[in-house]
Every structure is written in C-alpha cells, then in structure tokens.
Fold this sequence. Notes:
alpha/beta; Maf protein; 5 helices; globular
Amino acid sequence: MNQIVLASGNKGKLKEFSELMVDYGVEILAQSEFNVSEVAETGTTFVENAIIKARHAAEITGHAAIADDSGLEVDFLQGAPGIYSARYAGEGAKDQQNYTKLLNALENQSLRGARFQCVLVYMRHAKDPTPIICQASWEGTIGFAPQGENGHGYDPIFIPADHQSSAAELSSDEKNQLSHRGKALVLLIAAMKQQGIFN
C-alpha cells in the first residue's frame, strides 16, 4: 500500500483525505505520526503555502507528501480572510472565533457572496522540481448565523450555491462531492493516475 504523508494536523482534513483515497490503496498518514512540526506559512498565495507545507513534510518524513492550503474568500471583504482564514481572529484562534469575527464583519451587509478555495500539492520528495498542483473552488454565500454540527472551519456559516442548508449540515458523502477539497482531490487523483503514481 502506498503511504503518503498529509502535511496537516487537522483531523477533519485527515478523515476527508483518507475516505477519498482508500479506494486507491493509499494510506494517508498524519504528519503528527512523524513528529513533523508546523512550518511557517510565509507564502502570499495558497499555492506557495501548500508547496512550503508539502516540502517540509517530505523532507522530515522521507515520504511523498500532500499538502492542502485552503481558505474562504468573501467578495465584500475583497477576498479576505483568504490565506489567513485559519488565523483570521488571531494566531491559534478556534473555528468559532474565526467565523464569529467574519459574521460581525458582514453585519447588516446584504452582499454575502463567497467561495472556498483549495490548492492541493503532491510532492514525490522534498526536492521534487515538478510537484502536481490542483486547484478547485466551491461557490456559495455567508449565512447570518451558524447552522449544523458536521464539518469544520467556516462550514457552519457557508451556504453552498443551490442549497438552503450550511456546509456543516451536509453528510460526509455530499460534502466530498461538492466541496472545494473534494473537487481538488478528484483532479489530484486523476493527475496521479496519469503519471502512474497509482492505478
């Protein structure tokens, strides 16, 4: 079985990746199993940050690595919180603090268009000169109050296009089909197959 390290400590992401890749005989390992420290995300784009994280995990573990950098872009806020989504309310902020700050920023605002962006990077090794890079988005709007218990991050306040319920009210299967990460992972799997990384 292929083993790939996921350059993230996020349990929600680990579950999502494992569910989507199990059919391909790929075991996704958390970087915490190798005591990989968090690395400073000094990039100015999702692509740069994903490459930084994948390279760091591959270097320390000696395994191929997948990194994801994703975030929420809100039109009214000129694309914020963007690459700062995980720390929008400050370093070490909890999900609820981040989405509460966002709801406050949009108070009394009717323009609530937003999208999740996801960039996935696969690196065969730390010095991989041609990492596979895939990007996908998930359009929707920001609700007025949190709804639902599933998901993580901004899911309770994100209403996907053509839906009445929040992303946190979708089942895992529904979310994997619709989400930015689910769509980017489909693209990544196709690219990895094409390059003969697995069948």
